[in-house]
Specification:
twelve-stranded antiparallel β-barrel, mainly beta, 15 strands, single chain, Porin
Amino acid sequence: MKKAFKKIFLYSLIFIPMLSYGAGKERDENLILPDISLIDIPTSGIVDYYGFCFKSRFYSSGGVLTWLNFGVMDRLNLGASFMVDNLVGSGTPVKMVHPEIQVKFRFYDGGIYLPSLAIGYDGQGYYYDRDIKKYMEKEKGLYLVSSKEVLTPGLVAHGGLNVPDFDNSYLFGFIGLNYNIEEKVNLMAEYDNFFHSDDPERFNIGARFYITPTFTLDASIREIGRSEKFSNGWPRKSERILQMTYNTSF
Protein backbone atom coordinates (compact mmCIF):
# COMPACT_ATOMS: atom_id res chain seq x y z
CA MET A 1 0.00 0.00 0.00
CA LYS A 2 2.81 2.39 0.86
CA LYS A 3 4.58 1.66 -2.44
CA ALA A 4 1.36 2.29 -4.37
CA PHE A 5 0.83 5.59 -2.57
CA LYS A 6 4.39 6.68 -3.35
CA LYS A 7 3.96 5.87 -7.04
CA ILE A 8 0.65 7.73 -7.32
CA PHE A 9 2.09 10.80 -5.61
CA LEU A 10 5.28 10.87 -7.64
CA TYR A 11 3.38 10.36 -10.90
CA SER A 12 1.19 13.32 -9.98
CA LEU A 13 4.30 15.50 -9.79
CA ILE A 14 4.95 14.63 -13.44
CA PHE A 15 1.48 14.58 -14.99
CA ILE A 16 -0.16 17.56 -13.27
CA PRO A 17 2.43 19.99 -14.70
CA MET A 18 1.91 18.47 -18.16
CA LEU A 19 -1.84 18.96 -17.93
CA SER A 20 -1.31 22.46 -16.55
CA TYR A 21 0.91 23.37 -19.49
CA GLY A 22 -1.76 22.32 -21.96
CA ALA A 23 -4.55 24.09 -20.09
CA GLY A 24 -2.63 27.34 -19.83
CA LYS A 25 -1.78 27.84 -23.53
CA GLU A 26 -4.46 30.49 -23.96
CA ARG A 27 -2.61 32.79 -21.60
CA ASP A 28 0.11 35.16 -22.71
CA GLU A 29 3.10 32.81 -22.73
CA ASN A 30 5.40 35.63 -21.60
CA LEU A 31 3.25 36.60 -18.59
CA ILE A 32 4.87 36.07 -15.17
CA LEU A 33 2.16 35.77 -12.52
CA PRO A 34 2.51 37.66 -9.21
CA ASP A 35 3.91 35.74 -6.25
CA ILE A 36 1.19 34.57 -3.89
CA SER A 37 3.80 33.76 -1.22
CA LEU A 38 7.54 34.01 -0.58
CA ILE A 39 9.08 31.18 1.48
CA ASP A 40 6.80 30.93 4.52
CA ILE A 41 4.94 34.24 4.45
CA PRO A 42 1.97 35.14 2.23
CA THR A 43 1.81 38.17 -0.05
CA SER A 44 -1.27 40.05 -1.21
CA GLY A 45 -0.92 38.35 -4.61
CA ILE A 46 -3.66 35.94 -5.65
CA VAL A 47 -4.29 33.30 -8.29
CA ASP A 48 -6.39 34.76 -11.12
CA TYR A 49 -10.05 33.87 -11.53
CA TYR A 50 -10.15 30.38 -13.10
CA GLY A 51 -6.47 30.03 -12.19
CA PHE A 52 -4.84 27.01 -10.57
CA CYS A 53 -1.59 26.68 -8.63
CA PHE A 54 0.13 23.41 -7.68
CA LYS A 55 3.11 23.69 -5.32
CA SER A 56 5.33 21.00 -3.77
CA ARG A 57 7.99 21.54 -1.13
CA PHE A 58 10.69 18.99 -0.26
CA TYR A 59 11.77 19.44 3.35
CA SER A 60 13.85 17.73 6.05
CA SER A 61 14.03 13.92 6.35
CA GLY A 62 12.42 13.23 2.98
CA GLY A 63 9.11 14.98 3.64
CA VAL A 64 6.91 16.50 0.93
CA LEU A 65 4.39 19.31 1.49
CA THR A 66 1.90 20.01 -1.31
CA TRP A 67 -0.50 22.91 -1.87
CA LEU A 68 -3.41 23.17 -4.30
CA ASN A 69 -4.83 26.67 -4.83
CA PHE A 70 -7.76 27.78 -7.00
CA GLY A 71 -9.07 31.16 -8.13
CA VAL A 72 -12.73 30.37 -7.48
CA MET A 73 -13.97 33.95 -7.81
CA ASP A 74 -12.56 37.33 -8.73
CA ARG A 75 -10.18 38.26 -5.86
CA LEU A 76 -10.96 35.09 -3.89
CA ASN A 77 -8.69 32.03 -3.62
CA LEU A 78 -9.44 28.71 -1.94
CA GLY A 79 -6.89 26.00 -1.38
CA ALA A 80 -5.74 22.99 0.60
CA SER A 81 -2.40 21.55 1.66
CA PHE A 82 -1.14 18.24 2.97
CA MET A 83 2.24 16.95 4.09
CA VAL A 84 3.72 13.45 4.00
CA ASP A 85 6.67 12.64 6.27
CA ASN A 86 9.47 10.33 5.04
CA LEU A 87 8.03 10.04 1.53
CA VAL A 88 11.43 10.45 -0.17
CA GLY A 89 14.38 8.34 0.92
CA SER A 90 14.58 5.38 3.28
CA GLY A 91 13.00 6.87 6.40
CA THR A 92 10.02 5.13 8.01
CA PRO A 93 7.15 5.18 8.63
CA VAL A 94 5.61 7.08 5.71
CA LYS A 95 2.75 9.06 7.25
CA MET A 96 0.41 11.72 5.95
CA VAL A 97 -0.57 14.65 8.16
CA HIS A 98 -4.22 15.71 8.04
CA PRO A 99 -4.96 18.28 5.28
CA GLU A 100 -5.25 21.99 6.04
CA ILE A 101 -7.21 24.73 4.29
CA GLN A 102 -6.25 28.13 2.90
CA VAL A 103 -8.44 31.11 2.00
CA LYS A 104 -7.34 34.51 0.70
CA PHE A 105 -9.39 37.55 -0.33
CA ARG A 106 -7.65 40.54 -1.91
CA PHE A 107 -9.91 43.45 -1.05
CA TYR A 108 -7.73 46.37 -2.22
CA ASP A 109 -5.43 46.55 -5.24
CA GLY A 110 -3.35 49.43 -3.96
CA GLY A 111 -2.56 52.83 -5.42
CA ILE A 112 0.27 55.28 -5.88
CA TYR A 113 0.92 55.59 -2.15
CA LEU A 114 -1.04 52.75 -0.54
CA PRO A 115 -0.15 49.04 -0.73
CA SER A 116 -2.43 46.26 -1.94
CA LEU A 117 -4.19 44.44 0.90
CA ALA A 118 -5.46 40.91 1.43
CA ILE A 119 -7.00 39.01 4.32
CA GLY A 120 -6.81 35.26 4.64
CA TYR A 121 -6.57 32.10 6.67
CA ASP A 122 -3.83 29.46 6.46
CA GLY A 123 -3.95 26.35 8.63
CA GLN A 124 -0.62 24.88 7.47
CA GLY A 125 2.13 24.73 10.08
CA TYR A 126 5.47 22.90 10.16
CA TYR A 127 6.99 20.07 12.24
CA TYR A 128 3.81 18.27 13.25
CA ASP A 129 3.99 16.29 16.51
CA ARG A 130 1.41 13.50 16.39
CA ASP A 131 1.65 12.80 20.12
CA ILE A 132 0.34 16.24 21.10
CA LYS A 133 -1.45 16.87 17.77
CA LYS A 134 0.02 20.30 17.07
CA TYR A 135 2.61 22.00 14.87
CA MET A 136 5.85 23.01 16.54
CA GLU A 137 5.99 25.96 14.14
CA LYS A 138 2.56 27.53 14.27
CA GLU A 139 0.32 28.01 11.27
CA LYS A 140 -0.40 31.58 10.10
CA GLY A 141 -4.04 31.27 11.07
CA LEU A 142 -5.99 34.47 10.39
CA TYR A 143 -3.78 37.10 8.74
CA LEU A 144 -3.75 40.52 7.09
CA VAL A 145 -0.99 41.22 4.55
CA SER A 146 0.07 44.20 2.43
CA SER A 147 2.42 44.36 -0.57
CA LYS A 148 3.91 47.26 -2.50
CA GLU A 149 6.76 47.94 -4.91
CA VAL A 150 9.30 50.23 -3.23
CA LEU A 151 12.42 52.24 -4.07
CA THR A 152 13.17 50.63 -7.43
CA PRO A 153 11.27 48.60 -10.05
CA GLY A 154 11.14 44.90 -9.15
CA LEU A 155 11.69 45.39 -5.41
CA VAL A 156 8.52 44.53 -3.48
CA ALA A 157 7.98 44.81 0.27
CA HIS A 158 5.44 42.72 2.19
CA GLY A 159 4.25 42.96 5.76
CA GLY A 160 1.44 41.66 7.89
CA LEU A 161 -0.05 40.51 11.17
CA ASN A 162 -1.48 37.12 12.05
CA VAL A 163 -3.26 35.28 14.87
CA PRO A 164 -2.43 31.55 14.71
CA ASP A 165 -4.20 30.42 17.87
CA PHE A 166 -7.66 31.71 18.72
CA ASP A 167 -7.46 30.23 22.23
CA ASN A 168 -4.83 32.69 23.44
CA SER A 169 -5.20 35.32 20.65
CA TYR A 170 -1.46 36.04 20.45
CA LEU A 171 -0.66 38.51 17.67
CA PHE A 172 2.39 37.76 15.50
CA GLY A 173 4.00 39.74 12.70
CA PHE A 174 5.96 39.09 9.52
CA ILE A 175 7.82 41.13 6.90
CA GLY A 176 9.54 40.23 3.65
CA LEU A 177 11.26 41.52 0.53
CA ASN A 178 11.66 40.09 -2.93
CA TYR A 179 13.61 41.46 -5.87
CA ASN A 180 12.74 40.29 -9.36
CA ILE A 181 15.70 40.37 -11.76
CA GLU A 182 14.47 40.56 -15.36
CA GLU A 183 11.78 37.93 -14.61
CA LYS A 184 14.50 35.28 -14.49
CA VAL A 185 15.38 35.14 -10.79
CA ASN A 186 13.51 36.38 -7.73
CA LEU A 187 15.63 36.93 -4.60
CA MET A 188 13.65 36.55 -1.36
CA ALA A 189 14.21 37.35 2.31
CA GLU A 190 11.72 37.27 5.16
CA TYR A 191 11.57 37.76 8.91
CA ASP A 192 8.69 35.73 10.27
CA ASN A 193 6.88 34.95 13.50
CA PHE A 194 8.07 37.86 15.63
CA PHE A 195 6.63 39.53 18.77
CA HIS A 196 6.75 36.48 21.12
CA SER A 197 9.95 35.00 22.57
CA ASP A 198 8.27 31.72 23.61
CA ASP A 199 7.75 30.96 19.89
CA PRO A 200 10.97 32.32 18.32
CA GLU A 201 11.14 34.30 15.10
CA ARG A 202 12.51 32.89 11.84
CA PHE A 203 14.81 34.45 9.26
CA ASN A 204 14.62 32.81 5.83
CA ILE A 205 16.29 33.53 2.50
CA GLY A 206 15.90 31.98 -0.93
CA ALA A 207 15.90 32.35 -4.70
CA ARG A 208 13.06 31.63 -7.12
CA PHE A 209 14.06 30.64 -10.65
CA TYR A 210 11.55 31.16 -13.47
CA ILE A 211 12.14 28.09 -15.63
CA THR A 212 9.07 28.97 -17.73
CA PRO A 213 6.25 31.48 -17.11
CA THR A 214 4.22 28.65 -15.56
CA PHE A 215 6.95 26.77 -13.69
CA THR A 216 9.27 28.02 -10.95
CA LEU A 217 11.90 26.32 -8.81
CA ASP A 218 12.82 27.65 -5.36
CA ALA A 219 15.94 26.95 -3.31
CA SER A 220 15.72 28.34 0.22
CA ILE A 221 17.17 28.16 3.72
CA ARG A 222 14.83 28.44 6.67
CA GLU A 223 15.61 29.39 10.29
CA ILE A 224 19.08 30.74 9.60
CA GLY A 225 21.23 30.77 12.73
CA ARG A 226 18.91 28.60 14.81
CA SER A 227 20.40 25.89 17.03
CA GLU A 228 18.00 25.02 19.83
CA LYS A 229 15.04 22.76 20.62
CA PHE A 230 11.30 22.98 20.24
CA SER A 231 9.12 22.74 23.36
CA ASN A 232 8.68 18.99 22.75
CA GLY A 233 12.46 18.40 22.64
CA TRP A 234 12.85 18.10 18.86
CA PRO A 235 15.97 19.85 17.45
CA ARG A 236 15.35 23.24 15.86
CA LYS A 237 18.00 24.21 13.35
CA SER A 238 18.53 25.60 9.85
CA GLU A 239 16.72 23.70 7.11
CA ARG A 240 17.34 23.55 3.36
CA ILE A 241 14.26 23.19 1.18
CA LEU A 242 13.44 22.87 -2.51
CA GLN A 243 10.08 23.90 -3.91
CA MET A 244 8.37 23.57 -7.31
CA THR A 245 5.37 25.65 -8.40
CA TYR A 246 3.12 25.28 -11.44
CA ASN A 247 0.59 27.92 -12.44
CA THR A 248 -2.08 27.58 -15.07
CA SER A 249 -5.69 28.50 -15.88
CA PHE A 250 -8.77 26.55 -16.89
